[in-house]
Structures are given as structure tokens and as C-alpha cells.
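the three lines:
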Amino acid sequence: MATILGRATEIGGVSRAARRSYSWVREIPLVPLLLVTVLVLAAVLAPVLAPHSHLDPVKPTPGQCQAKYGMADCPYVDNMPPFWFSQGTFATPLGTDYLGRDLLSRLMYGARISLVVALTGTLFAGAIGTLLGVLAGYMGKWWDQIIMRVTDAWLTLPSLVFAILLSSVRGPGVWNIVLILALVFWSRYSRAVRGEVLALREREFVRLAEINGVGKLKIIRRHLIPNVMNTVMVLFSLQVGVAVIIEASLSFLGVGVPPPEPSWGLMMAQERESLMQGKWWLAVFPGICITMLVLSANMLGDWLRVRLDPQLRNR
Amino acid sequence: MRKYVLLRGFYSLVTLWLLVTIIFAMVRLTGDPVAMKGEIGADATYLERIKHDWGLDQPVYWQYTGFIGNLLKGDFGHSFEKSLPVRDIYFERLPNSLKLGFAAFVISLALGVPFGMLSALKVNTWWDNAGKMIALLGLSMPGFFVGLVLIIIFGVQLGWLPVLGKGSSAFVWSNPATWAPFWFRDWPHLAMPAFALGWYFSGAMLRITRSGMLDVLGSDYIKLVRLKGVPERMVVAKHALKNSLIPVLTFAGLNLLIMVNVAVVIEVIFNWPGVGQLLYDGLSNRDFPMVQGVVLMSGLMIVMLNFVIDVLYGYVDPRIRLSR
Amino acid sequence: MPPLLRVDDLRAYYFGFRGTRVVKAIDGVSFSLEAGETFGLVGESGCGKTSTCHAIVRLLPPSARIVSGRIELEGEDLLGKSQTEMRQIRGRRIATILQDPMASLDPLFSIYDQVAEPAYYHRAFRGRRLRQRVKELLSAVRIPSPERRMKDLPHQMSGGMRQRIVGAIALAGGPQVIIADEPTTNLDVTIQLQYLNLLKDLQRASGVALIFVTHNLGIVAKMCDKVGVMYAGKIVEMQSVRGLFYNPRHPYTRALLDSIPKLGTKDPLYVIPGQPPDLSRLPAGCSFQPRCQSAMERCRVEEPSEQHLDDAATTRCWLPLHEATTRG
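prediction for all of em together
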């Protein structure tokens, strides 16, 4: 009988491993992965790759000044179109903005800001939310009551409205947005994590540790936090996209990243005037960048969710 | 049922109190209400005067009781810029926001629910993938980007639709004659902002409908209905639809108010004089009481609507009121 | 005259992971059923019992496909029918009772609505006649004060009552066959017997044939005329109830019977070694061979074919033949 049992589990083990490697290879979403890689590379290597400074105007050639203003020399040429237009040049592939700065370089540095702000903000939110969620779920009683009531109240306000309120007392600034994102989004994590912990608390390995007199802190550290990490990771990847949009919205409203730093949202706000004059590219390129980043974050998040929770495969 | 309503009402009050407290605490812990004023280089005596006017020089507990007391009296603060009660300004703007919100809501329902159902009914087919892709795009394209693209195409290039403002019709509370026509006029002005706003929510709606429908379609009771030999179209239209619409409608009801409140960026782009623009005005005029007042009003409205939805939910789905 | 229901060499596979994994849930099932007869289908969970039930009414999940075989109802081929034609059969000629009474009623519609549906769609009952019919059905399944209870919603009823209502729904279309898929598994033990008696009574009164799926041999003994024992998608032994209990032919049947607790003995309970097989990777030869106590060399290489034994019993095992040849 022992041999039979042994063989049975062996067969099961092999098949499960085979299935896992199969789904791994086939189901990695290549498109979003590629997009994220491109954006991250652009952000990290911006100082090397960017053709021009992101803060200073591009030095124009005399010919450009002559063509645009009829002068031999000028400090900058503003609103240059992308290269495929007749006035465009490859020196500024996507054209220049209203202050003559290179759009491509600004987009690359903008990726830096978006990524850093969204990732750190979400990270802080995740850390706070996970901790409070674990506390609420595991300690129970009034811990649970207080933390969850506050979480629910916190969740009532739409995130953008809350973020605007906080930004009105913080003022613009990159780290202010990180703080705001952390303060607005932690409640999403604590709600989900608490539910998870409530289920984990009843599981045998936690029970066993309790019976053996393992301390609460150690149980939280060794058993609960590692086991809620799947949920937290999925939530994290889905929240990054929302955080990017919130950062862009705040910058758009002028309470996010302060100028002259190139935030995608701010760039779109600054170019609303040129949009009305038919110079659509200045606002559309940052918009495409935001969409690409959020889209790939969401797709990776969805994939992660399916991978970590097979029950959701069709959701 | 009565017990259920009372209990829900009590929870709502607790939530409201917590929310108000959170707002009070967060504002004072993370920053300074006069921070925005300080930036323009105003002199110290001026800032001191504002602080005194807003009661910020008093002890915190005193500020808090005064804050709560004012809210209980229905005083949500006075706009610094317009020297009017925020509540009055809010209600004056609310119809505009509601008009935009309703339109966006209808668009999000019209896009999200049918495609979500189709996606669920034809799960794992080409239809389903298309639906998932639409939902993903909806959730990934910020509303203001959609708005700008719409302006470029329909406003600037084609010139079909007006780009700014809400048109000439206005809703005046004191004049009942304006109440009805307001909703039915100036739809061209409404088209682009409503679509830009509805777009994002249609993605969320599609997902919720799809997953709710999938849950229901996979349930034993739908299996039994099929085993009874009920025509497939009735299985979907009668049993599956009614069951899967409950979560969708709860979500949708909340969405309506959230739409009214997060329309800030859309309202700014299209210069739509709604509640969201009040927030923007507050920000750009460095008018903190206005920002806080609008946020408080929004919170109040959402908590109230949550309560109404909970009660309705209890009526529609008897299991809920009995289980709690 | 053809039997009421005949299933012949039915095979239905689930195709998972984009067709790379094939689960042979039903792998050559044959049986037949006469009017008024009760056929029991016994086996461990996951052996294909439920899939067989769904395959007969052609309501397998989308990932599953009937690959071959025949299903005939009074000589009519069911596999050749369109889904629209099948709809006329489900509920009208073949009704089903599901396992979980708590989950099998739509929570948002009244008992009346749900019981009335088959009568409405299949028997064209309308208005007062429909109401009358529902009342009769509810009385037949012994729901007290049916007139009042039929306005209730499912959540207002106990599990036992709900399962009786599912029974009423099954009867509502006036079917020739009722497939009961573990109808009492989720009921309290005290209610189980009540429900079984009710089913028996209803069957006697209406002359309907019953396919009774269960893993409880005690219920089989009480309810069934003929029994099929399923293992890994196949019926490994089929014979009358008496035969099954007094003269089991397949080692698996024997093992099942041995693992019933017996009163009055202190012997340790027999446990079948090993686990039910993974239907996507069945062992070579006989599927039961790795767990079989009397497995022979032949069992590991050659899958046993169906052996027709003297007393109308069939079995898929080399052993009876082997015994016959060694004895003779």
C-alpha cells in the first residue's frame, strides 16, 4: 500500500509541475511586459538616451529661426511639429513644446516621475494597509472594529477627491504626491488583507503555532504576512495603474508635480491652448504614454491575479 | 426590516462621523490649511489674520468641537473668495454636475452592461476577448485623455460639437420653470464630457457585469432552470439577468455619485460649471474652506446614498436583511 | 420494443489547457432503463457519475464534448438532436434533481414561479389550471399548506423542504425519466429517509423511471432494482441489487462492500488502498489495477473488455473469466 500511495503522489507531483511550467511559458503577457520594459528603460536611461535637456529649450539652428520668426538668431523655437511634418526635424523627433523644449526628452523624464511616484506611493500604501489589515484580522475584537470602521469611512470618499483635499494643504511637490497616494490608498489593502487573514487564522498551521505557544508577533511575521503576499502583490499591480492616473490628474490640476519638472499630466494641461490651435501632438503623446503605462500595469496585474488564484481563471 | 434600516442608519452615522474626523485630522496632520496662502509671499500679519478668522489659532479640541458643531448646524464653511456659504454654492452647481453625471452614467450602463453580458455569455470566445480588451482600455485611458482626444477630433478637426461650457440653459432653484427644460437642452454641449466621463466607468461596469453574470450562469439554480427545459433566451433574460443585475445596480448607484465627484478633470477640460470645478476653483484661488466644504458635502452625499442603496438592497434581496 | 432509455458506449471527454489535457470523464458507459425501473449509479466522487447525468440531457460544460456513443430515448437518438429539440426533452421527458437543495433554487423567484415553469413550457398549462397543477405538485411532495407556501421564496424554507420542491419541479413536466444526482447527500440523516420514501412513493404513483446516483450503498439497497458501479469513467460492474450484494463480481465492488461499517464486529474497517485515479492520466491496462488486490499480469497490460456473465450481470474484469478457466 505504501508503494502505491507513494507512486500516486509522485504522479500527481509531476503532473502539477508540468502544468505549471506550461502555463508559465504560454501565458506571460508579452505585450504589456514589453511596454513596461520600454518605459522603465526610458525612465532609467533618460540622462543617457534623451537627445536634449528636459528643462532647457533646444538650441535652434539659424535656419529654423529664420523660417519661424524671420530672425537670424533666437533663443528657442516653440511648437515644432514631429519629424513627419514638413517643418519637423530629426533633431527633435516629436517636436518641441510651448517653451521650445524637446518633447521626447520630456516624455522620457516624465516616465521617471510617473514610475517613481506611483511605485513608491503604492508601496507605502501597501505597507500601511497590509500591516493594519493583518492587525485587524488577527487581533480581532476592538482592533478589528476600529480599524475596519476607519477603513470603511476612508473608502467612502472617491480617491481623487480625497487626494485633491490633501494636496490643497500640502501644495505641489513630488514627495507630497507620494504621501498623498499612500494616505489615500492604504485602505484598499487593509480591507482585502483582513479578509484573507480571517481565513488564514482558522488554518491548521496557524492554530498549531498558537497551540505551541508561538508569540503573536512571530505568527504575524512568519505565517500571516508571507501568506497574504499573493493578494498584496495582485492589488499592488492593479493599484499602480490607478496611482499613475491620480498623479497625472493632480498634476493636470496644478497641485501635483510642480513645473518645470515634466510630468505627463502637467504636460497635457500646459498644452490645452495649443490643442485648440490644432497642434494635437503635444497633448496626445503624454496621454498615450499614460495609457500605455496604465494598460500594461493593469494587464500584468490581471495576469498575476489569474496566476496566483486559479479560481479566477475566467474572471 | 425596521431593525435593519435602523442598524444601517446607525452605521451610516458612525461612518459619517469617522469621515468628518478623518478629514479634520488629515488636514491638520499632513499640512496647513493656510499653506496655499503662504506661497504668494503674503506677509505674516496677513496669515495670522486668516488663521484667526478660520479659528486655527485655537486649541485643537476647541477647533474640533467647533467644526463638528458647525457641520451639525449645516454650515460647511464659507468660501474665502466668494464669501458665500459653500453649501449654497454646492447646491447651485449640483444640477450641472448631476446632468453630466446622469448622461455619463447612462453611457457607462449602455456600453458596460450589454457588452459585459455578451462577454459572459460567450465566455472565452472572440467576443469575450474583445469585451475584456474594451474594459481594459476603459480602465487604462484617463478620462481627461479621452476628453482631449474627443476635443481634437470632434471639436477642432471636425468642428461638430461645442468644446466649452454647458450651453445657455440653466437650472435655477428659485425658478421652477427652469427645472424641467434644463435636462433636455444643450445636449451637444453634453456629448463629449459625458462620453469622456462615462468611458472610464463603462470599463468597470463591463467587468462587474461580466463576472456577476459568470457567477450566476455557473450556479446550480441556473443549471436547474436549464434542466427544466426553459428556453435559453428566458434562462438569460429572466433568471440570469435578474440575479446578476443586483450587484451591478448597487455598484452603478454608487458610481453615479462618484462620477459627479471625480468629474473634476473632465469639468476643467470642458469648462463645465459643476461641483468638480468648484474644487479646481478652490485650488487655483487658494481657497481652502471651499475645497474642504465641497469634499465634506461630497462625503455627506455619498454616505447618504450608500444608506439608501443598502435599504433598497434589503428590499430587493430578502436574504440580506435577514442575514444581518 | 426498445427500452425507455438506452445508453450505449457513451464517451465524453473534457478538454483542458487548450486541448493538451484530456480528461476521460465518461469512457464507454452503457446501460438501459425500462419504465418504472430504478437504476443506481454508484462510485467514488470524481468517477464520472455526474458527468453521465449531464451527458444524457446534453448539458455538459462547454469544455466537455461527447466523443462517441449513443443515447436513445424510446428509440429516438438524443445525440442527433439540436439544442432546441433537446430543450423539449429536458424537463418534459427527462427531469433532473440536483445535489444541493440550498443552491438549486433561484433565490429571487417564488416557489410557485419555479415549480410552474416546466408545466408552463412543456404542458401548456396557463392561469388557474397552472395554479391548480402547482398546488397538486406541492401536495404530492408533502409541502404543508401549499396554497400559502407557494408564494414564499426559497430562503424561507428548510433544506429538506427545498429538496422536495426540487422534486416537485422534476415532476411538473410529467417526465418518463428522473435523474436524481445524489439528492440526499446534503440533507440531514433524519430527512434523508423521509425523502427517499417520498421518491419511492412518487415513482410508484407515476410510473417514472429513476436513475439514482449516489455513493451510498445503503441507499442503493433501498432504492434500486439494478446497479452500475462506476470507476474511472466506466461501469465496471452491472447487475441486479441482489446480485451485487450477494455475489459481487468486480474487485472494486467487493472493496466497496467491504468498506461499509458493519454492526457487531470489531474487525478494523477495510480501506481501499490508494486514491481515485487522475482521469487525465490513467494507468495502463485496467484502471483499477494499481489498487486491486487480485491484479494479475494481464491486468497491467490489457484493458478488460465487458464480460457478460450467466445471470445477466456484466463486469469489466479478467478475474471471472480467469476463475472460470482455472476452475473448468
